[in-house]
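We now fix the convention by which a protein and its fold are recorded. Think of the row as the fold of the chain written in a discrete alphabet. Here is one such record, which you should read through line by line.
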Amino acid sequence: MVSVFEKNINALREKNSNLASLLLTYIPDEVPKFVKENNSYNFIYKGKYLHNPKNPLMESAEIFAMAENSPVAIHFIFGIGLGYLFQIASAKSQGTVILYEPDLNILRMAFSLVDFSGDILKPNVFLTNDFEQGCEYIYQKSYTKNTPFLLTTNAYREFSGNNFDDLVSRLQQSVGRYSLDLKYTKEKFYPLIKSTIKNIPKLINEIPIGEFKDRFKGTTAVIASAGPTLDKNIEYIKKYRDNIILITVGTAMKALYANDITPDFLCIIESNDCSKQIAGLDLSGVHFITEPFSNSNLRKFKYKNTYSHISSNLPINNFWCDITGIKNSEYLSKGTVSYTALNVARILGCKKIILAGQDLAYIEGQCYSKESAYKDLECRYNEITKKWEIAAKDFEHFALSLGNYDDADMRNQKARERIQALNSALYYVKGIKGDMIPTESVYAAFIQPLSEFTQFYPDRIYINTSLVGAQIDGFINMPIEEALKETEKISDRTLHTDFKFNIPIVKEKLFKSKESLKPALMYTEELLKTAKNLKNDLERYKNVTQEILKGLKKLSVGYTALSYDFSSKNQLYDYITTAERIELDYEMKMMRDVNFESVENIVNKIYEYAQTSANKTKEITEDIEKVLGEF
């Protein structure tokens, strides 16, 4: 006879074979006590109940009832206990259920007492004892319109103590990173592929920075960011300027130039026009490092040289790699230009890499360095609302610093939207001193990637000179002068290479990419025609007839063939249409009933998808033809 434990393990093997193997060989070092009180079963572990002693089933039902439940909901359950909450979620969740139980003592005992095999085998249920794997499950199931819900019992929360707060913080940071990735995927693919194509006449003269691998091997690099503590450290950067490779981000440039400091390298990877960050500065002595897709206005300045950092984890860069033959595994990015600068320092061979102004938090009311592009922002405590908030000391000046908008109303609107977004994303992270300090979700999301970088490349010395900002594990917290005092002068800073792109090959592959869009456009216009006919039928019949259902099936098959089968074979078309596909997939997933309103909505959405995709495909085709004419 198969035991309960064996049934659970057999089911788990199909979902998480590593965890199943781990549980099979695991010997508990402390076994939870199984008790029956008040006609309910419970666990007592380390002297504490894991469920409400009075009515654990009702407690779990109430917890789940408070969470949103839709086809795109993600229910992240912390702690299995005896499985009350897990099994309720498994039975009722319309979305995804992720069980995270890090304590194998509890998990093994629960698997020995309760049959979870049916729950485990459900296609929307995932189990793990590893936090990072749990976050990966979230990422796989995420859309741009859903947020994971953390569900746990009061007993588990109290039992975990400070570890629970840490779990919440880590989960927030992970979800923040995933939200950025999804936002990038949905909003950026099309404009970035357009920008990349537009930049090609310039790109063919931009040497990949990897061609200078280990050029400054063994030296010290300082990465200057625009955090408030840059003001305190800038005198030491100036004092030891001859001894360091100085890499800066765009927002810190004006602070450096105000102190007569010219960096070796400037990194900007923005797709938006942020050229005001560096406007009016003499950049003739600065090497500019940027992404293939970055805003074309950034390439209009006179730099010493311009180099490419072709991030491998940004799918859009695959297009440039494919038509040039460049290998970009060397290039890493995580959404923050500071990470790009960190990777540049590593590529160049710098042994000691020092962060200056990388506070990732609001320090002493300041959001940015006093000389930075965004110096007008401040973080202050509102005595009326009893909350921290972001505001502009000089709103007009802040609005001007955001971008090149000639229209004052548009400029002010963008500034208000930026401040509103900052306030809606304001929360707290662990500081270097151990306290919780205010920051925004984007900055908080950057902390873990910077920390992980030190684990990927442990052969370097990483130093953070903020001392009052966010704690970045893997970096030594040290005053900047102490970090720089033993450095030596770098006499030769020249960069030389014979690298050149094969222009005929680039032209040939670019032409083939253009030609590959012809069948895509044909299929898209055919889908548009089918959707239009079905729209007319719906308008005529005002009801979901058998003919309408047949037409809907044909439309769905056509959409699937185009949006998945064809897209998987044509990378360029996939980039052009990804945003519309994500939006439409969400709508189709949320469709619950087949009635006139829901069918009409989906038909309209597919029509919009086809129409927009056709227009964008034509635009990209014209862009490529224009670039080919410029060669």
